[in-house]
Amino acid sequence: MSKILAVFGATGQQGSSVVHFVLNDPELSQKYKIRAITRDVNSEKAKALKNTVEVVQGDAGDRASLETALAGVHTVFAMTVPFFGPGGLELEYNSAKTIADVAVQKGAEYIIFSTLPSRAEISGGKYTQISHFEAKAKAERYMRSLPIKSAFYAPGFFMENFAMPFMAPRAADDGTWLLTRHTSPKTPVPLIDATGDTGKFIGAILAEPDKFEGKTFCASTALYTLEEVAAIMSKATGQTVVARQISAEDFKATIPFAPDALVDSFSCGEEFGFYGPETEKLVAWAAENARGQPSTLEEFLQVHPLQLK
Question: What is the pLDDT of residue 194?
Fold first, then answer.
């Protein structure tokens, strides 16, 4: 009999990737029956999902909805959405905590959580205000203390983010396109095709849950410098894309939300590594153990052409 796999964020980048991957994996599609959990079951994406999987309403801010959504579930893929306003860390942490508490209450046997490393710990206390990293790290520590098996997925920088206006190349006066950050263009950053590849990492855990219990997948295809990203974008678009370092204040001025936290996050990655001093080794281990080869940035841009505008 198939085990019920509850997938939070089933209409978003990570959750939809898990749903798609499991449905299309011959072994996992027999082993698991998906229950997609979403806050709005009447959205267009949720309606489309109903053609292939069970879709139920569940909101981390409504414990009663989770008690219904997680009834009879064996494994949970949990993710939380960042809150960048005042009290955002505790709001996100409490969302994750509620999901985990209800999963245990309802007798679930395994939880896979989309986490991030503590920037405060990695930096030895230098960077403490990056709330979306700290909330997830705090939730991970809590989940590890619960009477439920667990594994963790810590994705790198989403390739999808290069389409966001403040992350995308911008037109320069000389006809080139500038990819600007306040960090060195030679800083290596782990990149992941979140929509295309999240399922490959979660799928590895679902296929061998005992093997990966307690493990964290620092999930990325590889490390790329901004110079390498610019070169790949140039080749993909036929335009000249140049990586350029600007001041922290100038970069901050381009960011429409949580500029201080995002600038600090990039700075921490430059100084201490995205996942700390072992970043390169951790990324290589995760890619080797994924259930399928993660997409390169070149492959991602073939499927999702970069629109320079």
Answer: 98
